[in-house]
Design a protein that fits this description.
two-stranded antiparallel sheet, 8 helices, 2 strands, 2% strand
Amino acid sequence: MIKDRWFALWFRLVSLLLVVSGFLAMSGVFSGGGLRVRTLAYYTMQSNVLAIVLFSVLFVRTATALRNSRTGGAGFFSRFEMVCVIDIMLTFIVFWVLLAPTIFTMAEDYRMWSFENLAVHAITPLLCLVDYILFSEPRHLKYRDVFFVVIFPLAYLLGTSLAGLMGYVYTVSLSDGLPVRFPYFFYDFDRIGLMSLAYIGAMLVFFLIVGHVFYAIDRKR
């Protein structure tokens, strides 16, 4: 664990600027068309908002602690940070494991290596993980924190599912010409039916496994 609060402050400031820039770029602010509100309905963007909150809180808390001493722990709110890290790492894993292969084969015009795409799907999740590794205080986690990691994705799942069932349409499918009422194929009830429950169940189990891994590592640090 690094105990240089000046370094932590600058790392968190740069991280916050990168996260905010990536979020704004992906939402269309820099393209001249204004904020594309529709993009905010995706888990990627909402998890990036969570990262913005995390780095904002950590930056302010680090600046406050720096007034007292440059040397000292900078692992503030380690329990909250662990939950945020796992929740946003889902963005990284789902995109590069489940979505990217499909995009490579079906959407040739997708800007895979653009700044905005890399920022929200790779840079931001990895910055959160690196911050946790570098600065988090050891042995601060409680076992119940393992289960807190599912609150954010379950809230997102419930909200988007209700919106879809009430008629919200994300786009129109190129394959069948019908409305797409759910943001991701792995819980598109209209097209894969009960198989979506298997995907959702597997992801929840994965969350809990990763949470247990983080907890076990924290106990051993």
